From TrEMBL:
It holds the Pfam family Phage_integrase. Belongs to the 'phage' integrase family. Residues 75-157 form the Core-binding (CB) domain. This is Site-specific integrase. It comes from Cryobacterium sandaracinum.
Length: 395
């Protein structure tokens, strides 16, 4: 049997020849991630089989690179968005709720505009225009869109797909200064009266009668500054109502996600905001009444719960509050308003540091910007100071 004649052909940068063994051999030179250029080869029964085998080897070597991604500057932004979400899931550092929010904002705000663009086409001017157009519709949308677009492009930079993040150079977002809404003491008492009237069931027609939980929820918010989710997550074990100074430990929040049952999360909005809050008399009294009405409770039972023993959702409590107050002609009151009301009262009667501590904030700037209603009244002590400084000479 005669030896096969040697033949050589080239497919792009791949050279294919018939080896002495009779099999086809494909070769190429490949620059590895460490910068070294090496020869890689593979064999097959046909030229195409050898070529496929070689390309498979090259793909395996590529996946061993540090970035572990097949994305390039010519990849679509949609591919980057998918890869970004997969990377978030792999790291598993943020809450499921935040992850779902990121995905929603990416899908509904950013992908609508950037889906078909390649990564190399996304520059500062395009990003800047996008954020400004979003801001015309809503400052909140612009802020949310900016956040997820920045994070996705940041991943592309970190994995050396892009040289820099164009979002680092877009214009800052501006909005008109917003003064937090806070209730006055008379307004709080009007709200209390409206809820008490509804809970008395004097005008009740049909359906389950009010169980007194809404009024108690409001009193706990007013006495602790807790967010509505934190209040609904209070367990029997978190309540100390027998000590000389009654207190509640705020150590969780209620989470509701689409397609999932509502559940209690074992920390508040942030893990650092766990805190024990001393209760004013009106809150302690409301908690005692609630415990008496609830009857026997296990240590892990929620202070506020549905008739089936399941957690109350924040959406249902907000809806019920709107319904009750709307029936009394009171509009625009939200649970978060009580959060601001308490912060404003503590700041006015003590200081901003105490208000921030009560709200579970680590930075007083957040408290000032979002939770304290600024008073227009300047300290009247200035009048006495100016009298002493510029008093007229007596004739």
């Amino acid at each position: 049997m005669s030896r096969p004649r040697l033949t050589i052909s080239t497919f792009g940068d791949i050279t294919i020849r018939v080896a002495p063994s009779g099999r086809f051999e494909a070769r190429t030179r490949y620059r590895d991630w460490d910068g070294q250029t090496r020869q890689v080869q593979a064999t097959g029964d046909t030229a195409r089989a050898a070529e496929r085998s070689l390309k498979s080897k090259l793909a395996t070597r590529y996946l061993q690179q540090p970035t572990n991604t097949s994305l390039t500057p010519d990849s679509s932004f949609e591919d980057l968005a998918t890869y970004w979400l997969e990377d978030i899931d792999m790291e598993n550092r943020i809450s499921r709720t935040t992850r779902n929010l990121y995905e929603r904002n990416m899908r509904t705000l950013v992908l609508l505009v950037f889906r078909s663009l390649t990564l190399r086409e996304i520059g500062v001017a395009r990003c800047d225009h996008f954020i400004k157009q979003l801001a015309k519709l809503s400052h909140s949308r612009a802020k949310q869109g900016r956040a997820v677009l920045r994070l996705a492009l940041e991943l592309a930079v970190r994995h050396e797909i892009l040289p820099s993040n164009p979002m680092d150079h877009v214009s800052r977002l501006y909005r008109e200064p917003h003064l937090p809404d806070a209730l006055t003491a008379p307004e709080v008492n009007v709200i209390r009266a409206a809820i008490a009237q509804w809970e008395s069931a004097a005008d009740h027609i049909s359906g389950p009668k009010p169980d007194g939980q809404l009024g108690a929820i409001i009193e706990v918010m007013l006495g602790t500054s807790a967010r509505i989710g934190e209040v609904l997550a209070i367990r029997r074990r978190d309540i100390d109502i027998t000590s000389a100074i009654p207190s509640i430990r705020l150590a969780g929040t209620i989470i509701s996600r689409n397609g999932e049952q509502t559940f209690r999360q074992d920390h508040p909005k942030t893990a650092e905001s766990r805190r024990v809050v001393a209760l004013p008399t009106f809150t302690a009294d409301a908690v005692r009444r609630r415990l008496a009405n609830a009857g026997s409770m296990g240590l892990d039972d929620l202070l506020f719960q549905s008739r089936d023993g399941t957690p109350l959702t924040t959406a249902n409590v907000r809806r019920q509050l709107r319904h009750v107050l709307g029936g009394a002609g009171i509009e625009g009151v939200t649970p978060h308003m009580f959060h601001r009301t308490v912060a404003t009262a503590v700041n006015a009667n003590a200081n901003i540091e105490l208000a921030a501590e009560l709200l579970g904030h680590t930075d007083t700037k957040i408290t000032v910007q979002h939770y304290i209603q600024r008073s227009e009244l300047v300290n009247p002590a200035t009048a006495a100071l100016l009298d002493r400084a510029f008093a007229k000479d007596e004739d």
